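#structure-requests
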Amino acid sequence: MAKVNNNLIDESLINELPGPILVIGASGFIGFNLLNKISNHRKDVFGTYFSSPGSRLTSTFNKKIFQLDNNSVSSIKNVLTTVKPRIIFDCSSYGSYSFESSYKKIFETNTLGLINTIEQCLTHDIHSYIYSGSSSEYGLNSDRPKEDSKFIPNSHYSLSKISNSFIINYYGKQKKFPILNLRLYSVYGDYEDSSRLIPNICISSLSGKLPSFAEKEVSRDFVHIDDVVNAFILASKNINSNFFGNSYNIGTGVKTSIKDIASLSKKLFKIKTNLDFNSKQNRAWDLKNWVADNKKSITDIRWTPLISLEDGLLRTQEWWKNFLDSNHQSFITKQKKYSDKSSISAIVACYKDQEAIPLMYNRLKTIFIKENIDYEIIFINDNSPDDSQKEIKKITAADNKVIGISHSRNFGSQAAFRSGMELYTKEACVLLDGDLQDPPEIIPKFIKKWRDGYDVVYGIRTKREMSYISELPYKIFYYFFNKLSEFQIPRDAGDFSLIDRKVSSKIINCSEKDFFLRGIRAYVGFSQIGIPYFRPERRFGNSTNNLFKNLGWAKKGIFSFTRIPLHLLTAIGISLFLLSITIIIVLSFNKFMYPDKLFPGIALIAVLVLFFSSLILLSIAILGEYISKIFEETKNRPYAIRKEIIKNGEIKALLDESL
């Protein structure tokens, strides 16, 4: 196999650029290559990611990577203030993959996110802002369109990118902001998502075969990632006020059909098997004539593609061979993120937990980052009388992945958890009490079981940090609760648990107002498993539970999930009725057989009256508990009222319960 020259990035050009340089969307294919290749030549290069660093960003870049949400002004401000960039390469994008189908997220990320970022940049000394656009802007008008050709959008993604080209033109021409739009064609090369065509070709060819291809007539304009990196560098170097707001086509100008690349790959990699073309491999937006007119790029920013498709395929195959030889994985794919259980929402119920909240946040964040989890943290302030809300506000100002919800009064922890479960956005939620008695360090064990296929993973309190006498009532309650329940309820399992979204959606559909979560969780079923853990004492302050509250918990659990007390009353009633009949028969027999021997017993009569009276009162009390639950449900009052949302350091009144 021919040896390829892997160093086409011009070091002198990179070093001439003013810095620092900020790459937005550095966890993606284009963004990571910009960050990685420029970092090889200078140190003042920084990157951002949206939800998680992903598979590309390694610990090498830890000190140069920031989390950024382009729909959060405070998040953008924090990054710009910290990095103080002169050059920004914006590669943030959503919707270029078939599984990224949320139109709301497409326009929030691509369009609104771009406006938010540019607006915050207007007050900074920006030398150049180079945006990673797409040839999808042309839509159906894809056959060598010029930059000012008509747009014919064919997807939400296409429409969002068209909007962005007008936004860029406005800020460049009217606001004199130094911004350019690079309309990238079919970029391939190092670190491309392995679900894409070129990585599939290269990986398969190492095994002496090729993948199935789309229709022969479908075409693309393949441009190597090193040429694209050079395009960003040259655009930044050669920008001037005459170009502000312009768009440029970044493609080779060479039309390559699927038949062409399949035949070239077969020849280049010496594949002996026959080629397979299948229309099922087509993407919804594939076109028969998709190729660039790059004359304007050559003239204005002095960019010319240098790598032929043949050379690029050789480079990419060699890169994948080295990658696979040194890594125990055969993929770098964004799609894995959507199917491999990698996002979790932590829902923390807070009442008198002011001192514990910052510690809980830090411990949760540490765990999620260590586990490479896309996370959000929702603190539910259940009208706590201390400064819990102030603590939550401070945390949300520093971390936009944290939000707070304040209730209008104290509705209890069960309502707090349910409130969070209705709002969370990730694949699963973890429920924790805010007093640190549910240790976050157990969560990695929950995640492992979740990824093993369990839908619910709950904590089992094998030991509490209290005396045996204090712990004994809890043990007795869980024993009888499990025995009395009409279905299996795990013993010593509290609310601390990880619940998959498909289960939590069923839980919140249970409409009862007198909510007993651990019982409902068992009731809905699915695949569940427990993890034993030691439950420590409340770290700050005194427990908010007492004898009467604990008795209330016990009543709520028993009367919500079993009818056995009613069955017992029925059984006792029948038994006593039979006993009464027996006694009447015996007394009647004695009356006729032994009329002179009356059965003595004012005392006996008094005891029987007292016994039956007590039994009647107990029966009425049990019936009253069930009736009170019916009464509570028929009132149909909301289980909780959300008063405020705390986000990005701001407290806003909640007028819309749906958020």
